[in-house]
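> example.struct
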């Protein structure tokens, strides 16, 4: 981030509704105990996800890539009263911290955690979703997109995170790297998908917002 971007970011954090104490505590514990805390979506993106979920009046959300549960809690905060969030995480070592914070957040009744590979779990989810949030390994983005597409309600949304991939998508030399290549292909695939409308929101690492027609 350059100086102006940093100032805008800091001001946005200062002037937006305050992050609740449970999310602050989860952030601290993730930094202390878990590898790759950079994977946390963090305060501003978390508020954005909570707002989107609330604005949509979502009743059913699927998240792919729970990590320590920060974005899951934010998405669940915006759910309708009887809404449910299903979230899938392949790393069983993260289960304990996720469950701890789902409970502390008071949202554990709304969050169903699935430990396993999303490619195996998704076909067994027998329901339709208002919103799917994709935030897992980048190499499988297009496969996951195809797998979840039929589980999204008509006019429902898919949001895919990290579609700017730290700017590596603009560098031809980086495009040999598997993850960068996968993101470039995913973005093109979505753009060409006649079944959906899409908009790349250039916020943080880029969020692709896709609406099923
Ligand atoms: C970027 S982190 C998710 C961050 C989280 N959404 C947040 O904002 O707090 C990606 C997570 O996806 C998980 N993951 C990657 N590939 C997966 C797969 N095929 N099935 C389920 N989980 C997967 C990883 O283990 C990791 O915890």
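> example.seq
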């Amino acid at each position: 981030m350059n100086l102006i971007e940093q100032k805008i970011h800091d001001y946005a954090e200062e002037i937006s509704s305050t992050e609740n104490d449970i999310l602050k505590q989860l952030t601290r514990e993730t930094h202390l105990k878990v590898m790759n805390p950079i994977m946390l979506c963090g305060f501003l993106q978390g508020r954005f996800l909570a707002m989107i979920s609330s604005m949509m009046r979502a009743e059913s959300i699927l998240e792919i890539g729970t990590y320590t549960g920060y974005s899951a809690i934010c998405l669940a905060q915006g759910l309708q009263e009887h809404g449910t969030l299903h979230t899938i995480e392949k790393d069983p070592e993260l289960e304990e911290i996720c469950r701890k914070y789902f409970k502390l957040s008071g949202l554990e009744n709304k969050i169903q955690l699935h430990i396993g590979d999303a490619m195996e779990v998704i076909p067994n989810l027998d329901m339709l979703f208002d919103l799917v949030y994709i935030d897992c390994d980048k190499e499988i983005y297009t496969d996951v997109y195809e797998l979840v597409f039929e589980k999204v309600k008509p006019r429902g949304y898919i949001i895919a995170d990290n579609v700017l991939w730290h700017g590596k998508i603009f560098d031809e030399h980086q495009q040999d790297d598997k993850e960068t290549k996968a993101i470039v292909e995913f973005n093109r695939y979505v753009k060409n998908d006649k079944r959906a409308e899409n908009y790349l929101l250039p916020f943080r690492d880029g969020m692709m917002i896709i609406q099923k027609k």
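> remarks
Residues 42-55 form the longest helix (14 residues).
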